């Protein structure tokens, strides 16, 4: 069997899996959508990262923010991906069903929204995709660094103080 025949014989992607990843910011959001900014700080010398996620308190007054100290992180892009994964996991744990996740890493947002995934991020991107389909609504978009200050500060504090908390 040739490679082309093998490819054609493969089953198409499952229709049961929702494609709820939306490129960029949609024009409108479903009622009850919670905004969450993420960021990561990474120390190259020690391969350690501080991961942070902050929920918009005007839309999620009872949801806690969080941060996590993470050793053994290969790159800053991986750290950004881990922050998104932790934010999604935390959101599900707290009962959020509709989320708008924002990151100041354009490379990460492009990788999440891309059909083909970079091999060095494949595992974390697969985790993000698996978690994202658990939400009624989930979209990922880029936010300018100037608009991501609180998440940036929390990720740096988490890294430099080696802390993990949901505050």
The run of helices and strands is HEEEHEHHEHE
Tell me the overall shape.
Answer: globular
Looking at the overall shape, the CATH architecture is 2-Layer Sandwich
**Which segments are poorly predicted (pLDDT under 50) over 5 or more consecutive residues?**
6-23
Query: CATH fold name, please?
Result: Nucleotidyltransferase, domain 5
Mean pLDDT: 86
Number of helices: 5
Q: Could you name the CATH class?
A: Alpha Beta
Distance between the termini: 57 Å
Strand order within the widest sheet? Answer: 5-4-1-2-3-6
Number of DSSP E strands: 6
Strand content: 15-25%
What structural class do you assign from the helix and strand content? alpha/beta
Kindly report the name of the CATH homologous superfamily.
Ribonuclease H-like superfamily/Ribonuclease H
Structural overview:
- By secondary structure, this protein is α/β, with parallel strands linked by helices.
- The chain has a single domain, classed as Ribonuclease H-like superfamily/Ribonuclease H (Nucleotidyltransferase, domain 5).
- Helices cover 34% and strands 22% of the residues.
- It is built from five helices and six strands; from the N terminus they run αβββαβααβαβ.
- Strands 5-4-1-2-3-6 form a six-stranded mixed sheet.
- Strand 1 and strand 2 form a beta hairpin.
- Helix 2 runs parallel beside helix 4.
- The radius of gyration is 17 Å and the shape is globular.
- 38% of the residues are buried.
- About 11% of the residues have low confidence.
């Amino acid at each position: 069997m040739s490679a082309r025949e093998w490819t054609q014989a493969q089953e198409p992607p499952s229709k049961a899996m929702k494609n709820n990843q939306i490129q960029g910011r949609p024009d409108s959001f479903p009622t009850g959508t919670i905004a969450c900014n993420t960021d990561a700080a990474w120390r190259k010398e020690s391969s350690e990262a501080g991961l942070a996620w902050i929920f918009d308190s005007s839309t999620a007054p009872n949801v806690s923010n969080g941060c996590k100290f993470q050793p053994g992180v290969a790159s800053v892009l991986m750290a950004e991906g881990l922050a998104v994964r932790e934010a999604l996991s935390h959101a599900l744990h707290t009962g959020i069903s509709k989320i708008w996740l924002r990151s100041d890493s354009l490379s990460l947002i492009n990788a999440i929204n891309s059909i083909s995934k970079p091999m060095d991020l494949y595992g974390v991107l697969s985790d993000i995709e698996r978690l994202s389909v658990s939400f009624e609504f989930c979209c990922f978009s880029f936010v300018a660094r100037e608009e991501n200050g609180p998440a940036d500060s929390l990720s740096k504090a988490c890294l430099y103080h080696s802390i993990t908390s949901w505050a």
